[in-house]
Amino acid sequence: MTLGLHLDFNLESCGKIPLKAKLHIQPKELVALLGPSGSGKTTLLRSLAGLHTEVTGHIQSGNIEWFDSAKKIQLKPEQRSLGIVFQNYALFPHLTALQNVMLPLFKLSKRDANQKALDWLARVHLSGLELRKPHELSGGQRQRVALARALVAEPRLLLLDEPFSAVDQATRHKLRRELALLRHQIEAPTLLVTHDLEEALQLADRICVLHHGQILQVATPNELMSHPTSPTVARLLGMHNLFKGIVKDVTKPKITVDWCGKTLCIATQTVYKVGQTIEWMATPHSLILHRPDRPSNGDKENPIEGRIEELVILGPHVSISVRPTHAPELPLRFFIPRHFVERQDLRIGMPIFVSLLEDQLHIFD
Amino acid sequence: MELQALEISFRLAIFTSLLLLPIGITLGRFIAWSHRPWVPVLQSLIFLPLVLPPTVLGYYFLVAFSGQAPLGSLWETLFNKSLNFSFEGLLIASIIANLPFSVQPIQHAFSGIDRDLRDAARTCGLNPWQAFFKIELPLIWPGVAGAFVLTFAHTLGEFGVVLMVGGNLSGETRTLSIAIYDQVQAFNLDAAGQMALVLLALAFVSLLLLQGLGQFRQRRKV
Lengths: 365, 222
Description:
The complex is a heterodimer.
Chain A: E1 7-13, E2 19-25, E3 30-34, H1 41-49, E4 56-61, E5 64-68, E6 73-74, E7 82-85, H2 97-102, H3 110-123, H4 139-151, E8 157-161, H5 169-182, E9 190-194, H6 197-203, E10 206-211, E11 214-219, H7 221-226, H8 231-236, E12 242-251, E13 254-259, E14 262-267, E15 277-282, E16 287-290, E17 303-314, E18 317-324, E19 332-337, H9 338-344, E20 351-356, E21 361-363
Parallel strand pairs in A: 3-9, 3-10, 7-8, 8-9
Antiparallel strand pairs in A: 1-2, 1-4, 4-5, 5-6, 10-11, 12-13, 12-15, 13-14, 15-21, 16-20, 17-18, 17-20, 18-19
Helix pairs in contact in A: 3-4
Chain B: H1 3-33, H2 39-51, H3 54-65, H4 70-79, H5 87-97, H6 99-111, H7 115-123, H8 128-157, H9 160-166, H10 176-185, H11 189-220
Helix pairs in contact in B: 1-5, 1-6, 1-8, 1-10, 2-6, 3-9, 5-9, 6-8, 8-11, 10-11
């Protein structure tokens, strides 16, 4: 059944909204398209749907060519057999929930369409609300109607355009959980557009980072968070502590790096040349905090001396900023548990040590 | 009460309003959704009758409908009669003079349809015609009904253009508003008053209908 449902596209546009994106999505796979506002996510999604046509390249769903600018093939949106959940759901206000879900089935007999739409409304937990108009439904219920409408005609591609952004946080968590359960029943590939990293990490098989219309990295959530390919990707993922250093010595599987006068050891399998400038990042797992008067395990590994500049309580976590003595202009920022701050009696201005675990430091290729 | 004048006025208003519906829908939809740079020019042309004195408009119709002008001479060749001072001429002039009253409410209704809603119709598998009949028309009908009522009421009371193009031919171009003017000129104020009351009542009912349609549209917005 899933045979021939994969999606391949390679699109370019140099118009008002530049685009350069190439991707292959497997059947049943959910790929999150992650990027800030204006990164071209919605343009890419609209191009795949055939709603934005100022692009060149090709789109292929299985063995069906949806678009090929060279061969002048351009299937209309209604010919592509796809389902979209729009950001504000775009439910037809004059139709009931049932009629909205029945609409894509207009080629079936009324009885079959009715039965299928009722089945899908039941699957998204909306039994009993079939005859309500969109304005009589809550935000979460509208989203479910939109999802049922997108899936009812068994599309070859499911596109979700920030589908959780218009609901409150409690509903968002509930809907995400429901989608995570429902997606195993979806045969088609799914592309989820989002600017929410947490959402992408929770739902996606792979995450595709988009910036200024270009795909910067496509990777599984774990791979992306541990090995962002470039400082830009790391910054887009909200990571801090990105620095430059010069390679001083290479003794496999480690290198010694000069970081503004401080020598660091970093574990790596990649070959670097002595004198080469590298960009490296202290990942959240690489940082360990010690009070100078209370030494603990691991404090000999790349010890950095500094002072606490900032402590911001954010619920159960505390955002801490430490200015290293050797490079006060390059503060290290990270989160620590609030109970740790209280137990260690950490205060602003206090001298402190930060150890950088050498096998957790990441070097950008 | 001049029943013949009332009948001509009604006939003119009904034909004008009905014939303007497809024209208003086509133009209103195009203006609301098109991003072409020349759309403001088209819009200004359509809205010209709103600001132009009816006599000026009537004068240009008179010139265009004459046997010397291409339109007038073509009409004479085809139908062997003049467009000026005929019901057909009156109807064409009335349609053009009422374009803004038909286009504006429909354009407004189309503008109220979100782009995502139009896109959703297409991605649900509907072709543009199916999307128009199943989605767009049910959503814009208060605007279409408003355009009909407004055009009907305005045509019933039209005076300047009617007088210039149609003159005052009893049974052919003598409408209710022309008849009122005629009766006032003849100091027959009672007859003028009766007919004026009919037009006043119709105008009031039309405005009441328009208000009702506006409220309906507000209620249905999600």
